[in-house]
Design a protein that fits this description.
The chain is mainly β and 115 residues long. The chain has 2 helices and 8 strands, in the order βααβββββββ. The chain starts with 15 loop residues before the first strand and ends with a strand.
Amino acid sequence: MPSTDNEQYLSKAPDIIFEVLSKSTAHKDRTTKFHLYEAEGVKFYILVDQYENTAIVYKLDKGKYIKLNEVNSETVTFELDNCIFDFEFKKYGFKHVLYRPDKVVDVKYIPSPYP
């Protein structure tokens, strides 16, 4: 059965977005996308600044983003419905641990492509 154009796109907002900023799109990511994701109900929006080695974590609260923290080498725990995971922000990459309340599901290290 052939797919329609509507089936090719997401119809529901994701729960979490990690946005890696680039110099050419940083302003759009901090303004246009920030307000779009807030309006669409994305629970967490994380702006990762690869040049400053920082990440700003926003959480949706009563329809508005609140800044949870600004990190550069800390671990942040995200809780999404039945999924909880730790994301470790490091200067030279990221490590995340995905677990359910009863067990660890996955551990990955993602090296940074930048020196």
